[in-house]
Amino acid sequence: MVFGLFDKQPVVDPSSSEWIFNAYGWALQNFDADLFYSYTVLVRPTNEFFPGTVNSVQGMAEIIFDRVKAYAGINHWPTQVQDQSMCHMIESQQVLIHGALRGPKGVVDESVEDNQRLVIPYNPQQINNPEGMIATYAHVLSHHMGRMAKVPPPGGIDYWPQATELLAIFLGFGFMFANSAYNFRGGCGSCYNPYAQRDAYLTEVEATYALALFCHLKGIPNSKVTPHLKSHLRGIYRKSVKEIVEKAQAVDRLKQIQSE
Question: Is residue 198 within 8 Å of 136, Cβ to Cβ?
């Protein structure tokens, strides 16, 4: 049947699917599998998940970041949010964390000086693109968290940006990565602000597939997911779920990973 040929094409190529599964294995092994199943939530891009309003760009950036920290399970990390034009990122910057790396067993240390806090930059242009800002925050935090892993992610340093995006999806931010991975640049030129967009390393299809794996592992039904995805990603998501269900052995291997 000629008309059925394209239906048989996988959502992502086999090597990408294998990498996503392996990256989930890396995340489960290094960042608390038990916490993933018992604590991590699927963060939705809604006012329910991101309540509150303020009258300044800095205030809005901080209120969004505080929610991202909470959902990532790292409320106890000593951080400060700064306009990216006002701060200087230090690649080797270290953060001292008390108690568990993430989750409710983390210990807040209020005595940390400002100059010892992890500086998290934000782009003021992203205030009108909250999903992009949330994804950017989650990616920055995942970069710092990923450096604390006992072993490098699959593919090593060459796949570091992709691995840390995958880690952010593992932390519950899949909607934001799928929905903000691609932004249409056509139409009225004044309506598109390139500075409000984020740099994406996983494609929107790969991010959607990774989101589907998250939801399958967590037992979240399609009806709770598709309404929050861009319309053109909903079919991709449903097809991703079907493909993942068929990879029962690979899924079982992930489910067998226990926290150390």
Answer: yes
